[in-house]
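FAQ: What does the model actually see?

It sees only this:
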Amino acid sequence: MLLVLFTLGSQRYGLDAGVVEMIVPALPLRAVPGTPPAVVGVFAFRNQVTPVIDLAQLALGQPARPAMSSRYVVTRFPLAGGTERFLALLAERVNEVCDVPDDRLRPPGVRSPGAPFLGPVADTPGGLVQTVTLAQLLPPELQALLFAEEPAAPSSAP
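And it is asked to produce this:
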């Protein structure tokens, strides 16, 4: 599995490159008032308004540190019914990929009920890397908030 590597705090994590559409520099965002702290805003990506989630805020409860290596990892987030929507992840130190053979991925040893998105671990030359499962990343209530169907337009007929 080819992993896009990033950090949360001081730990290295990897996201399956197969779900990544593009990695872009951190761009100015349009804020969305009233959303949870992990939702840092939206931007236009390929003619879609794309929400941006701060991975550090979501996983650790603290915002990502501003850095030149911080990036938006634009993913194809899987939705019910087999559809996908773009979801951008603000991640720190996105500057490396690592090819890990599937047989080198091991169970994490500890399951965290508060972080169901944490997957298998790989021992790489740079140290342990834990995988992040995109489909498990968003709690159901956040997923519903980000990908709710648009309300029908009000009728102008009297």
